[in-house]
Design brief:
- The chain is 35% helix and 19% strand.
- A hairpin with a 5-residue loop joins strand 17 and strand 18.
- Helix 15 packs antiparallel against helix 16.
- It contains 24 helices and 27 strands.
- The strands form 7 sheets. It has a 7-stranded mixed β-sheet, sandwiched between helices. It has a 5-stranded mixed β-sheet with strand order 4-1-7-5-6, covered by helices on one side. A 5-stranded antiparallel β-sheet has the order 10-14-13-12-11.
- This is SWIM-type domain-containing protein.
């Protein structure tokens, strides 16, 4: 395109708008056209644009879009940038160029105390007024000057003609390098501007002799902030509880300060101070003066808004805002202190447990909150169940509980044990939870004992839980009643089945075994169960024997004596476990109170929502009943008993319905608590209402009973309750278990091995190895 001219349509004063696809459009403003070609120089173009729009030369930047990409603006800052823009648009006759105004901010040094940042000589001021900021080309062989005009310094009148006063950069590079680095150049980047604004509030923390501070710590804090604001490092010559003497860390610099306690008071007063600096400081202020408490004070407010504020982001932000270079561990330690200041001490939280448990039971009568300690008074376990949860479970929920646990990644680790129940709409309803030092038989037994004590009756209760960890023995020992049933978690059983298989099975074969295993568990009748396990037997005799020996009476619908309402796994309370995961880094009392708040919000929200329901059943159960009712039209009903209570229903199969005993031979009525299609057909023939044959737990009335009670707020330390002064003082210390060093694992545990891909040899087609290790053809 040599010799070809392109028209640069320069636009200023409009605004950019973001469209739906993320691209930018430019509206408004004024435009002028300039002819440019490959021989055009950036400085000439820059000056012409500035004069055309009557702008201060140093206050504009020039940008453009790449062809076909209106999402990213490209900045022109030297000759090569200008040539690239022309080359990118060689097939066009014109180029849209956007002129952006940059705000020029000048530091106010009029009231600044004598320090290194105020040691600007007249000659240096002249350099700042006249020096030209330089932009280096990619090859670092060409410098493009811009004239810097700033209102902070006096500008000669004869600078009206800017072209005559462009300073030769090479002659002044050495002079510019001598300017003290603490002085902010008027056109520095955004990070330096932020640094100036953030630290400016501390520039007058130290005013001179006679200034007083409430304590020696307050003086140290003020001195530290003062040094950061003025960009110098210091070191202590004397530093104790009643006097502090400090000098500038730079060798030979006369800056000194001495403060000591005023007699008969705790006040600290500056007695001597030499405010003069002769040092030039350092380019980057290190974090030597940035103590953990200082970092904590700086980030505390942001940490309150953003709890996931990462140490690496803290390092970046403090460098940009204050010019202090921290390392990762300084930032991490500062964050830990800030968290403790915001959330309270982990250690103190354990010590507050006796009072905290009393508060729970006093503010929520009928609740149970108790804890135990070890012989050395260290924390062992804590159990909490609110009255609203206990009442709601016993009045409105099915007698069905799910036990589960989730590890806590707090400072002292631990595990949260939980008991949850399904409400009438099959949503999670929290009943009780505990914080223990570890998952063990003893801790599960203790949890079940507290749960039994909290419940008024356990008759007909079904507990869905893992068969491992001693739960089978604990449930039978604690609930010594034949009417309490233990149901195994089907998900955990299937995972154990896959782990125990010794043979080499492909991923597909394992998936088929698991599918048949689930089908056997859901089968309502023994013949269906037998058919499914015979299918497993045809694949693997080993898997078949494992299923037979796994006690099907604890997990198969065809043999289970209790009522589990087709809930086959114990991970029903995932929502509750997520609450604990969100609050696991809090001290124990705050974690429990956060969970309490979540339960309170849940109850209030669902109570309000259910008040608008107009149906007799909950929405989910109403939908299920409607689906069963649709199937009735294809069924025929015959009276098969002289008493008129048994009926034969014919359709795809022949089923017998005993209307008085709420029984159908398909077992759907018994397993779900809702009439199956066969039962609805009989009920309709008798002219009765199917709603009268639904389990009471599914009615809107029972649902409202579940959420009728409220969880009340627990007063904080600023609102103490009256306590019995005769109560013995119990000391609780943190558990000895500490979180191990390093990043906690993020990989989910408990994933099914059936989902893992196995190696398969491309030669012999066998699994467990690849062709490089295959021995078949050796």
């Amino acid at each position: 395109m040599a010799g070809k001219k392109v028209i640069a349509i320069c636009q200023l004063g409009g605004i950019f708008k973001t469209l739906c696809d993320g691209s930018l459009s430019y509206d408004g403003g004024e435009a002028h056209a300039i002819d440019i070609d490959e021989d055009s120089k950036y400085n000439d173009f820059y000056m012409e644009v500035a004069e055309m729009f009557s702008c201060i030369h140093s206050s504009i930047s020039i940008k453009y879009f790449l062809p076909g990409n209106r999402k990213t603006l490209i900045t022109i800052s030297n000759d090569k940038d200008l040539q690239r823009m022309i080359k990118f648009h060689e097939s066009s006759s014109s180029i849209d160029v956007y002129i952006m105004m940059e705000e020029v901010v000048a530091p106010d040094v009029s009231n600044m105390p004598a320090s290194r940042s105020s040691r600007t000589t007249l000659s240096e001021a002249g350099i700042l007024a006249d020096a030209t900021p330089c932009v280096l080309d990619d090859d670092m062989d060409e410098i493009s000057p811009r004239v810097l005009l700033d209102s902070t310094f006096d500008v000669p009148d004869d600078l009206a003609n800017v072209d005559e006063h462009i300073i030769n950069v090479n002659e002044h590079m050495a002079m510019a390098s001598e300017i003290p680095l603490s002085i902010s150049l008027p056109l520095t980047g955004s990070s330096e501007e932020k640094q100036m604004k953030a630290a400016q509030q501390w520039q007058n923390n130290i005013t001179g002799v006679g200034q007083r501070f409430n304590s020696v710590n307050d003086f140290r804090d003020a001195l530290r902030k003062y040094s950061i604001a003025h960009q110098f490092a210091f070191k202590y010559k004397k530093n104790d509880s009643h006097r502090v003497t400090v000098r500038c860390k730079a060798e030979g610099c006369p800056w000194r300060i001495h403060a000591s306690r005023l007699s008969t008071t705790q006040l600290i007063c500056i007695k001597k101070m030499n405010p003069t600096h002769t040092c030039e400081g350092s380019i980057v202020t290190t974090g030597h003066q940035a103590t953990r408490s200082w970092v904590a004070g700086v980030i505390k407010e942001k940490l309150k808004v953003s709890p996931n504020y990462k140490p690496k982001d803290i390092v970046t932000d403090i460098k940009e805002q204050y010019g202090v270079q921290l390392n990762y561990f300084q930032a991490w330690r500062g964050k830990e202190i800030a968290k403790e200041q915001l959330q309270g001490s982990y250690k103190e939280a354990y010590g507050q447990l006796p009072y905290f448990c009393d508060q729970i039971m006093e503010t929520n009568p009928g609740s149970l909150a108790t804890f135990t300690t070890k012989d050395d008074s260290s924390f062992h376990r804590l159990f909490v169940s609110f009255h609203a949860s206990l009442y709601g479970f016993q009045q409105g929920c099915r007698p069905l509980l799910f036990l589960g646990s989730v590890p806590l990644k707090s400072k002292y680790q631990g595990t949260l044990l939980a008991a949850t129940a399904p409400d009438g709409d099959d949503d999670v309803f929290p009943v009780a939870f505990a914080v223990v030092d570890a998952v063990s038989d003893d801790n599960w037994r203790w949890f079940l004992q507290q749960l039994k004590a909290a419940l008024t009756t356990c008759h007909g209760l079904t507990i869905v839980a893992d068969r491992e960890l001693g739960l089978k023995e604990s449930i039978s020992d604690v609930f010594q009643d034949n009417s309490v049933y233990h149901a195994y978690c089907l998900r955990l059983l299937s995972e154990q089945l896959i782990r125990d298989l010794k043979g080499q099975f492909s991923h597909e074969v394992k998936r088929l075994i698991v599918d048949d295993f689930y089908a056997a568990a859901y089968a309502p009748r023994p013949e269906g169960f037998q058919k499914c396990i015979e299918s497993i037997k045809s694949i693997s005799l080993e898997a078949y024997n494992w299923v037979i020996e796994s006690e099907p009476m604890y997990w198969a619908n065809a043999f289970f004596p209790g009522a589990r309402y087709n809930h086959m796994t114990s991970n029903f309370g995932e929502m509750f476990y997520s609450w604990a995961s969100e609050a696991h880094e809090l001290p124990i009392t705050q974690m429990v109170d956060t969970i309490r708040g979540k339960i309170m919000e849940l109850i209030n929200h669902r109570r309000a929502a259910s008040n608008h329901w107009l149906t007799r059943l909950t929405p989910f159960r109403e939908e299920r009943l409607d689906k069963e009712s649709i199937k009735v039209c294809a069924l025929q009903v015959f009276n098969s008993g002289p008493a008129g209570n048994k009926f034969e229903v014919r359709g795809d199969s022949i089923e017998v319905v005993d209307i008085n005993n709420y029984d159908c031979s398909c077992k759907g009525w018994q397993l779900t608590g809702l009439p199956c299609c066969h039962a609805i057909a009989v009920i309709s023939c008798l002219g009765r209402d199917p709603y009268d044959y639904c389990a009471r737990y599914f009615t809107s009335e029972s649902y409202r009973l579940t959420y009728s009670e409220s969880v009340h707020r627990i007063p904080g330390e600023d609102m103490p309750l009256q306590k019995d002064i005769s109560q013995a003082i119990v000391t609780v210390t943190p558990p000895p278990t500490r979180r191990p060093p390093g990043r906690p694992p993020t990989k989910k545990l408990g994933m099914m091995e059936a989902n893992k891909r196995q190696l398969q040899c491309s030669r012999c087609k066998c699994t467990g190895h690849n062709k490089s290790t295959c021995k078949e053809f050796i």
